[in-house]
């Protein structure tokens, strides 16, 4: 593994800023940083908060061990004072934000970090890495889940992304409603159901397809999925049912015109008496190809490349900005108008029916609470102490409820505006 | 960290295939797997092999520890026989391939893994995760380096990708010719020069810009980079030179119309006597925006999002395919014609001037070696023993030489065909 703690997953400039701020006394100024996105990926109608639970676990381990500080000293990156500060580093501030599975829109303050300048600024890179990656995957995955209309989707993209990112991607996809993952590390770390049976290599390994199928059924039983497209698909299905009988759980098709092949395979399976045998399709599945198959007799999808790379939006565009110093709002001049200084309070307003109308972001004000308003922020860390966090399953259910609550246009796959407007209410 | 060894960074189906193959005796068949891409990302003219050094290190640690095997047993993923096999797993086969920094084209056999079916198939996901990620980053980074025409580029995209992927991305970008990275973990793990000075937050933290600049110069000296676009850029530059004097090393501009701002900043710096002060630009830099700035007085670029997400191609499209079983070539029926069975030998043919003409891939034949041919494959692991690997700096130089060797059209940023054709020579 590249590093022993998450503390060096940090940009060099955070430590030079701390060095200078320790020297001039500003390191201890009381600061508020906020994580938000200036815009959603082009055409996307909502973002999905993901990674917070994973982030809070990493923050527990955010310490600079002696070897790491030694590297920073010997590379001339920090001076002796900063090295001593890093050695005793413990985050003692507060972190609050939107829970995982919550939706976000441009300007939503999805994470607020408060404490001294130095203790907050050093967390910038790790916070953004986790949230930008996981939120990008979850947003893409949520669109696929919508497109699948209740049919299960298996996440099988590990091989298309960094080996550690793959584990986080499986988690984010499950959060977004995927049924299972192929990734064993994600299964172990997060309790996500894992699934998988065989690849083309298994068929090619054997002398012929019936032999390969017989071997798989002997080892795994009839409650398995046979991959039928290594040679001829029709013959593959015939071989599968001949070997396993009509009680075979499923066949998988990984190539070709899946629309035509799904219909043909269903007819053939039915004609062979395998009316309960499921059809799983995989191979370059994204939200659009899933939607295209809505009317076809497909029982389950396998999604890989598109989900782990965010289906065209591989990062969520989240930034970590200083918004308050010693109680004074601060803002960079060149920001767009949506950016205002000061700690924000966020509320989602709903119709009495439960449909979301707008997100209201109060800058330094107490919100005018209404009956159908929902406060969006929760405490994750208070005075350095980690608070109880929702489970992954709870976050998954939270997202499901959130997606039900937005206006129906918000679930369209086509490009459009954010599902609900964001209203910034500046300081009175 | 999610997992203690890389062994669970594996897809479920690899273990079910092993279970079945152990049961029917095919697990010990002698197999050859190859890693190749069927096509390059749309319009790209070459791929860059990256990640091999990182992969070989991970393969050294590819063991299933007792807790991992315990998880697999308790989750019902493997049976007792397979659990025992995993517990004693050691890769005893051979791995050869293109060295890091080598170019590849559709069909290039960049990694060849031989051994028993079971010992090779279990490595599939990890091999592809590492090579697909790192090669995607390196290819994007190499295009940026070409576009920068000798001006240095700093990799600063950690915050836009998964926290571990960020470390690998910094490594891949450095391999491709980037000058440095902001990522401290990459600096420590791979000896890559790290760099960074300050963010807008540092200026906002202070009571005014001159105070912030004075603090930074007091801590880091005049050989630093002042970020001048927090408020008004012209005033920022005046403040920077007023505080640091005309010997200031550099200013950085992170927003706005960088073309106009670079010209204006150069004129202003020169008028203030700071003729040696460098101009660094950052903010949504990709190969195209870098190329656009070629004629402007820019001294250095900072690239973030685009490089760590592969600039539109976040994964390299590499696959891991069984091509030979007990000496017999195998191939899936539905593959395109470029895919042929059997272990391949790859040669790049050059003109006497050194310009590459074509890549020749021999299937099961001994190549007809010519004077200007270069054999592309090297041994990385022989009989389970890791061989000496090139250093990252050597791989970086290798890529530089490879890019010099391809026809000049191959370096164009515009969409086009692969820089050289790939000729598959099947078995005689």
UniProtKB/TrEMBL annotation, chains A, B:
Keywords: Glycosyltransferase, Ligase, Phosphoprotein, Pyridine nucleotide biosynthesis, Transferase. Pathway: Cofactor biosynthesis; NAD(+) biosynthesis; nicotinate D-ribonucleotide from nicotinate: step 1/1. It comes from Actinoplanes lutulentus. The keyword Mitochondrion does not apply. GO terms for molecular function: glycosyltransferase activity; nicotinate phosphoribosyltransferase activity. Catalyzes the first step in the biosynthesis of NAD from nicotinic acid, the ATP-dependent synthesis of beta-nicotinate D-ribonucleotide from nicotinate and 5-phospho-D-ribose 1-phosphate. InterPro entries: Aldolase_TIM, NAPRTase_N, Nic_PRibTrfase-Fam, Nic_PRibTrfase_pncB, Nicotinate_pribotase-like_C. It comes from the Bacteria. PANTHER family: NICOTINATE PHOSPHORIBOSYLTRANSFERASE (PTHR11098), NICOTINATE PHOSPHORIBOSYLTRANSFERASE PNCB1 (PTHR11098:SF8). GO terms for biological process: NAD+ biosynthetic process via the salvage pathway. It catalyses: 5-phospho-alpha-D-ribose 1-diphosphate + nicotinate + ATP + H2O = nicotinate beta-D-ribonucleotide + ADP + phosphate + diphosphate. Its EC number is 6.3.4.21. SUPFAM superfamilies: Nicotinate/Quinolinate PRTase C-terminal domain-like, Nicotinate/Quinolinate PRTase N-terminal domain-like. Belongs to the NAPRTase family. This is Nicotinate phosphoribosyltransferase. GO terms for cellular component: cytosol. The keyword Plastid does not apply. Residues 8-132 form the Nicotinate phosphoribosyltransferase N-terminal domain. Transiently phosphorylated on a His residue during the reaction cycle. Phosphorylation strongly increases the affinity for substrates and increases the rate of nicotinate D-ribonucleotide production. Dephosphorylation regenerates the low-affinity form of the enzyme, leading to product release. It is an enzyme of class 6 (ligase).
């Amino acid at each position: 593994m590249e590093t022993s703690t998450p503390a060096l997953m940090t940009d060099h400039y955070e430590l030079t800023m701390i060095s200078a701020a320790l020297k001039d006394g500003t390191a201890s100024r009381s600061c508020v940083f906020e994580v938000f996105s200036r815009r959603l990926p082009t055409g996307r109608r909502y973002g999905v908060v993901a990674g917070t639970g994973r982030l809070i676990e990493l923050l527990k381990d955010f310490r600079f061990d002696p070897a790491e500080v030694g590297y920073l000293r010997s590379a001339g990156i920090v001076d002796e004072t900063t090295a001593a500060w890093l050695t005793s580093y413990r985050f003692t501030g507060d972190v609050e934000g939107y829970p995982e599975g919550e939706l976000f829109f441009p300007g939503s303050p999805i994470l607020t970090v408060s404490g001294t300048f130095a203790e907050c600024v050093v967390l910038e890179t790790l916070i953004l890495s986790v949230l930008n990656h996981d939120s990008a995957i979850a947003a893409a995955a949520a669109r696929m889940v919508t497109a699948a209309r209740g049919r299960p989707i298996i996440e099988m993209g590990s091989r298309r992304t960094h080996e550690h990112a793959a584990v986080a991607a499986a988690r984010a996809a499950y959060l977004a409603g995927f049924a299972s993952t192929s990734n064993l590390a994600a299964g172990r770390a997060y309790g996500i159901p894992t699934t998988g049976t065989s690849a083309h290599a298994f068929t090619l390994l054997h002398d012929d397809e019936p032999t390969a199928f017989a071997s798989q059924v002997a080892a795994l039983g009839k409650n398995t999925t046979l991959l039928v497209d290594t040679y001829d698909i029709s013959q593959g299905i015939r071989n599968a049912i001949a070997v396993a009988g009509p009680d075979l759980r499923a066949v998988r098709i990984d190539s070709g015109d899946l629309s035509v092949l799904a219909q043909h395979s269903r007819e053939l399976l039915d004609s062979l008496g395998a009316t309960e045998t499921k059809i799983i399709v995989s191979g370059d599945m994204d939200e659009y190809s899933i939607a295209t198959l809505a009317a076809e007799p497909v029982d389950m999808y396998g999604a890989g490349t598109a989900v782990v790379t965010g289906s065209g939006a591989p990062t969520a565009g989240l930034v970590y900005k200083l918004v308050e110093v010693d109680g004074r709002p601060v803002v960079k001049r060149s920001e767009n108008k949506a950016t205002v200084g000061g700690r924000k309070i966020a509320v989602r307003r709903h119709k009495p029916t439960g449909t979301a109308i707008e997100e209201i972001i109060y800058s330094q004000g107490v919100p005018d609470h209404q009956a159908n308003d929902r406060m969006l922020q929760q405490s994750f860390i208070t005075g350095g102490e980690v608070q109880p966090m929702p489970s992954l399953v709870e976050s998954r259910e939270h997202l499901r409820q959130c997606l039900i609550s937005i206006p129906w246009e918000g679930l369209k796959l086509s490009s459009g505006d954010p599902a609900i407007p964001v209203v910034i209410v500046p300081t009175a």
